[in-house]
Amino acid sequence: LLVFLALALPGSQGRIIPRCEMVRILRRNGFEGFQGGTVADWMCLVKHESDYNTKAYNNNGPSRDYGIFQINSKYWCNDGRTSGSKNACHISCSKLQDDNIEDDIQCAKRIAQEARGLTPWYGWKNHCRGRNLSSYVRGC
């Protein structure tokens, strides 16, 4: 079972970031070794959360996950529809679905820092943790 539904918003498909481009983005933004994770960990997370799609979203009952890192509206962003949203990243969830992922990166790093790792992401816990992830970065 996948933890996400890579659905496009009406009239817009989103950008699918090519694998090696995503590896370069993560390396350039200091993800190697960040909170004990590797770029391969983050690549596996992004693959299983959003399939590299900047416009991915997933309904979770009262909340929703947004963007390439599937950031949740109950805790991290404000979508205007999730009651009691904490908006800890101080960002509109819609900003997590544009093709500029700089703000997504800042919020994902904040989540990992607060959690001291990647455990908030079920895609990572269910598909990546404790596995050989070298194929996610091979050739990049």
List the defining traits of the structure above.
about 140 residues; 3-stranded antiparallel beta sheet; mainly alpha; 4 helices; Lysozyme; antimicrobial; disulfide bond; Glyco_hydro_22
Question: How does the SSE layout of this entry go?
Answer:
Blueprint (H helix, E strand, L loop, with lengths): L18 H10 L10 H12 L6 E4 L2 E4 L4 E2 L29 H14 L6 H6 L13
Antiparallel strand pairs: 1-2, 2-3
Enzyme class: hydrolase
EC number: 3.2.1.17
Protein name: lysozyme
Structure in words:
By secondary structure, the chain is mainly alpha-helical. The chain has one domain: Lysozyme, CATH 1.10.530.10. The chain is 30% helix and 7% strand. It contains four helices and three strands; from the N terminus they run ααβββαα. It has helices spanning 19-28, 39-50, 102-115, 122-127, and strands at residues 57-60, 63-66, 71-72. A three-stranded antiparallel sheet has the order 1-2-3. α1 (19-28) crosses α2 (39-50). The chain is globular and about 45 Å long. The termini are far apart.
